[in-house]
Design brief:
lipopolysaccharide transport protein A fold, mainly beta, globular, six-stranded antiparallel barrel, disordered N terminus
């Protein structure tokens, strides 16, 4: 009989083997396929061998006895009993010492029906829901058998009461999982066979008919299939290869490989392939998209190369080429360091040619765009922070790019950027410091404003008359002051001069110091009073001089370089209170009460005239003169020469109703907001000799229909009349034969969003990153953006599960059709010069509906009642094909006419397996 001691040594030696990870590639695309189950089977089956001896006190079980074998022994309870039962006639000499176990972890085993040790067949059996656990290794199977005489281990399925196979072998170590129909392994020769193995490796699922381990360095797989489908046993597509030879950590050699869709082989095949193996990200080619454009001819777009530079950053280089000579280049890089920072950089350039040289419509356009986003982790440094959000480039890039179909970005007329560094010095008082560079670009006028850089510093509030740990109450103790510093170097240029030396020629620089002094306190218990004064000193490096030019007979201006400064101050105060009023109608009424909250406030501000900074100059040959200040067009404005002594009046109102709750379990009535705000504000200038009252501004807003409809209203009412030229005159409108107020403008907006999902508000798709980044709307009222370089974007949510019965999309929802709808209406009225005209009147609508669990349709459209035309319209259709997706986008009319059809695999690993056909909008270039 083979000794237990010898068998134990084999177990220990095998449990210390290392696991290798393997990867394979199919066709020309990087496919990661891990054959971990081949090696892991050796470990967990060996662990199964040692399970009997690893526990000193395994659980006691009752083993059913067969009728024809009444002498079958029970399972031993301890290791000593197992040694005695191995050979009851042989006494182990006292001089023999057992080797110490090398297992460094506790082993657990479980079997629902029984655990059996057969001395005649030298076989251990765990039956029905057999489980073995050792450290991070987990093995489950219907049956596990180990023959310690032949050094063989077997794990397999069992049949249920209906004769169907259940409880397939399942092995897990860490995040690696292997499933198979059965496994056979020899502990001495290290050879193994695995039938119908299944494993997940990244986005891939791999199934092999027979896997054979020849030795520690060579593996063979017969009938292997690779797919990203969730159903590995019945995938909608897969790659099939008849044979694979694998050398761990070195190479993979495959035979004929064929792509199969719906169990039908396709022409996509490769006769053989050789792939080096690695467990790190790899560089590789990106397959371009082929198509045709009306003005640029045939093209190859979004082809290039991916560089896996390190674990912290990468680089993607993409390019476009058109047969008429147009081309484009894009560089994209993402970087991240855990708990420190993350970000991405996009550099894009396009050289677009229209028509042919010599033709009247020939034009050439060079457009570029630079984007950079950097975010610092909050845990990296609590006292300093660096952030960047850059989006600059040619003003016409989003309108003329051949690689974008982003209507939201093209309609937006502003590009903005900001790079900033801030630091907080933990002193007493605290000091804050920041340095930033900003950029604002109007894509219509092509005017660019930049600050390179902006310096800001401030000293925290100082309460000179209150101890640091004492409550600050009253006029004196609440008296506080600050110090703020702001410095700018501002550049104003145009698109054509950007990044050229001329852009720095008219740069303006300056510093502004401000010291605000303020306090707040209560009077008569219910009135809150605040008062403050602000002193400002401004230093500038650029001033102007205006004069009458006798040569041109026009007024002229001269820039003067050099240091200059001015000082200003003002005073302001306000007093306000809050008044609560409740109108009770009775608890038996549907509306039990209405609550009205009024917040009136009166403010006073005083600003003297700073005439010392003003001069006069001759305006024309007739001897007319005009006042001006040399600080006009300055960075921080100019000192005023008008004395202002204003009293401000404002009233804020809110209305809330208490309504009986129909829910019998509710103890309190419901509260419904009737009017979120009703604000009235105006000012009166005591120092003005005429037109002392400013127009009255009234705004109101509320939410209706369970907060799904948002309504806002605003109007401006002028108490003064106007003359025949439309100028305000010092005569009240009511004294001029009119009403008390003259409405000069009004605006009204309604936004409504609703969804069928549990009565919740429909919010639509998440905003496209590029549209939101460019300042556009994040909903789909202007349609959804199409990223032509990555068509895996979907109308389906990632966590949206289709009906379990709809595996092919053939079933319907019956009467239930999930949907969402967004509605926006805007009305603008103008009457400043008695024109009484509707200047804006438009409506926009967008929505999505699920025709079936895997069919979605969406639309975006609108109508402009002033221009009497349909606004941007887009129709969207998408089909979820499980591992694939298919969509069709169509803009039927307008300047952005477009259609595109796409079908491809969702997985990023196989994103190059696709069919993409589209007709992009004609980009008309200026000469």
């Amino acid at each position: 009989m083979q000794s237990v001691e010898y068998f134990h040594k084999i177990i220990v030696s095998l449990t210390l083997q290392k696991i290798s990870h393997f990867f394979t590639k199919i066709v020309l695309i990087q496919l990661r396929a891990n054959f971990l189950h081949i090696v892991l089977s050796a470990i967990f089956l060996t662990v199964g061998t040692s399970a009997l001896w690893a526990q000193e006190t395994p659980k006691s079980v009752t083993v059913p006895q067969e009728k024809n074998d009444t002498n079958k022994p029970l399972i031993p309870k301890t290791e000593e009993e197992a040694i005695k039962s191995a050979d009851s006639t042989v006494k182990v000499p006292d001089t023999v010492k057992r080797s110490k176990s090398a297992l460094d972890g506790e082993v657990h085993r479980v079997a629902k029906d029984y655990e059996e040790l057969n001395q005649e067949t030298k076989e251990l059996t765990l039956y029905n829901e057999a489980e073995l656990y050792y450290k991070d290794i987990e093995l489950k199977a219907g049956i596990i058998k180990m023959n310690y005489e032949k050094n063989e281990v077997y794990a397999g399925r069992i049949k249920d009461s209906l004769g169907n196979y259940t409880q397939m072998p399942y092995f897990k170590q860490g995040t690696n999982v292997v499933e198979a129909d059965s496994i056979h392994f020899n502990t001495v020769t290290k050879k193994a066979r695995v039938w119908n193995s299944r494993t997940d490796q990244g986005e891939f699922r791999v199934k092999g008919e027979i896997t054979k381990k020849e030795n520690d360095s060579v593996y063979f797989i017969k009938g292997a299939r690779f797919t990203t489908s969730k159903n590995i046993d019945d995938p909608e597509y897969y790659f099939y290869t008849d044979k694979i030879k694998l050398v761990p950590n070195k190479k993979v050699v495959v035979g004929f490989t064929n792509m199969v869709i719906a169990d039908v082989p396709t022409p996509v095949a490769l006769p053989f392939a050789f792939f080096p193996m690695t467990d790190e990200a790899e560089s590789g080619f990106i397959v371009p998209t082929f198509g045709e454009n009306n003005r640029q001819g045939y093209f190859l777009q979004n082809g290039g190369y991916y560089f896996a530079l390190s674990d912290y950053y990468d680089l993607t280089v993409l390019g476009d080429y058109f047969t008429n000579g147009s081309y484009g280049l894009r560089f994209q890089s993402s970087y991240a360091k855990r708990y420190r920072f993350s970000g991405n950089v996009n550099l894009r350039f396009e050289n677009t040619v229209q028509s042919e040289r010599g033709f009247p419509d020939y034009a050439r356009s060079r457009q570029y765009n630079i984007q950079w986003s950097h975010n610092q982790d909050a845990k990296a440094n609590p006292n300093s922070r660096f952030a960047a959000s850059v989006n600059l480039g040619s003003s016409q890039y989003y309108r003329q790019s051949q690689n974008l179909a982003n209507i939201g970005a093209s309609l937006n007329n502003t590009l903005q950027s900001s790079i900033s560094y801030s630091k907080t010095f933990q002193t007493v008082p605290q000091i804050n410091f920041s340095l930033s560079a900003t950029h604002s670009q109007n894509t219509n006028t092509e005017v660019i404003n930049m600050t390179l850089p902006t310096l800001q510093a401030s000293v925290d509030r100082i309460f000179p008359f209150a101890p640091a740990d004492a409550p600050k109450k009253g006029f004196i103790k609440n008296l506080n002051l600050q110090y703020n510093l702001r410095g700018e170097n501002r550049i104003t240029t145009t698109d054509s001069l950007f990044f050229k030396p001329e852009m720095f020629r008219d740069a303006r620089s300056g510093l502004q110091h401000s010291i605000p002094l303020s306090t707040n306190f209560k009077v008569f218990k219910y009135f809150s009073v605040s008062a403050g004064t602000n002193y400002q000193e401004t230093w500038v490096m650029n001033t102007v001089e205006r004069f009458y030019n006798t040569n041109t007979n026009e007024d002229d201006i001269r820039d003067i370089k050099g240091f200059d400064s001015y000082r200003t101050y003002n005073f302001s105060s306000s007093i306000g209170t809050t008044i609560y009023g409740t109108f009770n109608f009775g608890e038996d009424k549907k509306v039990q009460a209405i609550r009205h909250v009024v917040r009136p406030a009166v403010s006073y501000s005083y600003t003297p005239a700073f005439d010392q900074y003003w001069d006069t100059y001759q305006l024309d040959a007739a001897g007319n003169y005009r006042d001006y200040t040399r600080f006009e067009n300055g960075l921080f404005g100019a000192p005023g020469n008008n004395f202002a002594n204003n009293i401000g009046l404002s009233v804020n109102n809110t209305f809330e109703a208490k309504v009986r709750n129909d829910d019998e379990t509710a103890e309190e009535p419901k509260k419904i907001m009737l009017l979120n705000n009703l604000n009235l504000a105006t000012t009166y200038n005591i120092a003005a000799d005429s037109l002392a009252w400013s127009p009255l501004r009234i705004t109101a807003g509320t939410n209706l229909l369970n907060q799904k409809m948002n309504i806002n209203f605003g109007t401006t009412l002028d108490p003064y009349a106007i003359d025949n030229n439309g100028n305000r005159i010092d005569l009240y409108n009511i004294d001029n034969g009119g009403s008390l107020f003259r409405m000069t403008s009004a605006n009204f907006t309604v936004n409504y969003s609703v969804s069928s999902k549990d009565g919740k508000t429909g919010k639509g798709k998440d905003g496209d990153s590029q549209t939101a980044r460019n300042g556009g709307r994040e909903d789909d009222l202007f349609g959804t953006a199409v990223d032509l370089s990555d068509r895996r974007q979907s109308m389906f949510d990632e966590d949206e599960d289709a009906d379990a019965e709809d595996k092919t999309g053939g079933t319907f929802f019956n009467a239930k059709l999930p949907w969402d709808l967004r509605f926006a209406y805007s009305l603008t009225y103008s009457n400043a010069n008695r024109q009484s005209k509707i200047t804006g009147n438009s409506i926009m609508v967008s929505g999505n509906i699920d025709l079936t669990p895997r069919w979605k349709m969406g639309f975006s459209s609108g109508y402009d009642f002033v221009q009497q035309g349909v606004t941007f319209t887009q129709l969207r259709f998408e089909r979820d094909l499980l591992s694939w997706r298919m969509d069709f986008n169509w803009v039927p009319f307008g300047d952005n006419t477009y259609w595109g059809f796409f079908i491809g695999i969702k997985s990023s690993v196989l994103s190059d397996i696709k069919y993409d056909k589209r007709q992009v909008p004609d980009r008309v270039l200026g000469n």
